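dumping this here so i dont lose it
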């Protein structure tokens, strides 16, 4: 005899499965036939696996496996153009030169040559985390993946991405433990825990320390500034974590039309006026197919704007002023 309790539990499971199937239909990457749902156990319910590819030097094709959590905060359950765009500019030497330009070149006028690959890196609002995974592949000594905590699913997805790619790239477990950290972070809060996460084996930082030696050489924010409400909080974190002399903060974004363009771009005005972070280089990358990750064919919404910021007193800004 089936009890009322058993019937309720069965109904609950059916409703959960229905909701997952609905989410899959809504958020599946359009045109991506390689989407794979991880259904082997309850731990991975609601996490899908995808493959991103790009051509290196217009010849070899390189791929990254990434995972999306459908309960991720914000819009982290989709792959945005800026994420892939930044990853491509990290991995492909030609695109990297386009993005970083003279920052990578050593000359008498450039005392601030940016060493590649960067030593310590951190990504805000990681989501699919293509930039962080690309930095790991490029050889960064420490890569910190961060996102706002809403539930464990987001961090389970990030962990899966790190593990799958480490296996594909022959990075052993000991090295991957040293070279990566996955950290819960709400912008503008609890900066101290990030100093410890950024630190490598040669930098000893006490848990309650604000030791500036444990700062990031490269910060990344991919499609994080579409909502002006969070600009100040993001800048508070970035300004506290960037290495002041040679650190770079790469901001990639598209214009989604949720607020006027001028409101989005106030981020850079506030960065300069309140946090002494100045734009030292910028690019616009056009995507005629729109935002593939969400199925939008609006070309204007698909374009990616890349801007690199550095501290006002950094060598990067001084070199620009001396040119």
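and the seq i came up w/
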């Amino acid at each position: 005899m089936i009890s009322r309790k058993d019937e309720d539990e069965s109904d609950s499971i059916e409703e959960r499965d229905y909701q997952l199937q609905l989410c899959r239909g809504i958020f599946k990457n359009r045109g991506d036939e390689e989407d794979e749902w991880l259904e082997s156990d309850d731990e991975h319910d609601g996490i899908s696996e995808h493959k991103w590819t790009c051509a290196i030097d217009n010849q070899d094709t390189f791929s990254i496996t990434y995972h999306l959590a459908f309960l991720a905060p914000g819009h982290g359950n989709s792959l945005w153009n800026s994420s892939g765009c930044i990853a491509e500019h990290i991995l492909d030497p030609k695109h990297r030169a386009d993005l970083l330009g003279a920052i990578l070149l050593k000359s008498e006028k450039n005392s601030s040559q940016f060493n590649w690959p960067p030593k310590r890196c951190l990504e805000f609002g990681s989501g699919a985390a293509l930039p962080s995974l690309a930095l790991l592949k490029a050889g960064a000594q420490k890569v910190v993946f961060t996102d706002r905590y809403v539930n464990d699913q987001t961090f389970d997805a990030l962990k899966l991405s790190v593990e799958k790619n480490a296996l594909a790239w022959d990075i052993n477990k000991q090295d991957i433990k040293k070279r990566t950290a996955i950290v819960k972070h709400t912008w503008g809060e609890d900066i101290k825990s990030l100093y410890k996460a950024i630190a490598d084996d040669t930098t000893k930082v006490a848990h309650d320390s604000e030791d500036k030696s444990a700062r990031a050489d490269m910060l990344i924010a991919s499609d994080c500034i579409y909502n002006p409400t969070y600009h100040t909080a993001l800048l508070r974190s970035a300004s506290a974590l960037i290495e002041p002399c040679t650190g770079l903060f790469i901001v990639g974004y598209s214009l989604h039309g949720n607020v006027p363009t001028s409101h989005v771009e106030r981020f850079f005005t506030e960065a300069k006026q309140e946090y002494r972070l100045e734009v030292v280089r910028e690019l616009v990358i056009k995507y005629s197919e729109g935002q593939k990750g969400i199925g939008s064919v609006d070309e204007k919404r698909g374009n990616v704007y890349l801007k690199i910021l550095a501290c006002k007193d950094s060598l990067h800004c001084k070199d620009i002023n001396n040119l």
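The longest helix spans residues 4-27.
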